[in-house]
Amino acid sequence: MTNPQATTGPRPREQRRADTLAMLRSPARDAWVSTASAADDGTAEPYLVPLSLAWIDDRVVLALEATSRTGRNLLAAGTARLALGGTRDVVMIDTDLERSVRVADAPAEIAEGYAAQADWDPRPGGEHDVYLVLRPRRVQAWREVDELAGRLLMRDGEWV
């Protein structure tokens, strides 16, 4: 089966950015979140999990237990890579941890914004739950091979 989007040709950069922002703002959006930790021998141990996200004030917000493997990795290393969409409409986001906020202490804009977009509310959860606010550093988006050349939409935290 062919992809119907493939016949329309590559999207202009402005359209890719608009499509990416629409994906980030859509309700009940999930992402694959990749982090890594150091093994005893110093090698990286990658870890990948699906998590719900919210797009609040040009930041990705995740909610999870700070003591989970992803939480520990992100809090220690301060970086994560996120993947959204399918293989024929993918958005890759390299992020830096901007701040961590205990769910119980979160300002309303984060708590209510996350609950509204992510379609679940972590506030009734455990005492170790946190919101991790991630600043996008690099964003890439493409559908087919004809969009690979122009896939870079953000570099060093600035839209290009």
From TrEMBL:
Lineage top rank: taxon: Bacteria
Organism: Isoptericola peretonis
Name of this protein: Pyridoxamine 5'-phosphate oxidase family protein
SUPFAM superfamilies linked to this entry: FMN-binding split barrel (SSF50475)
Gene3D superfamilies for the chain: Electron Transport, Fmn-binding Protein, Chain A
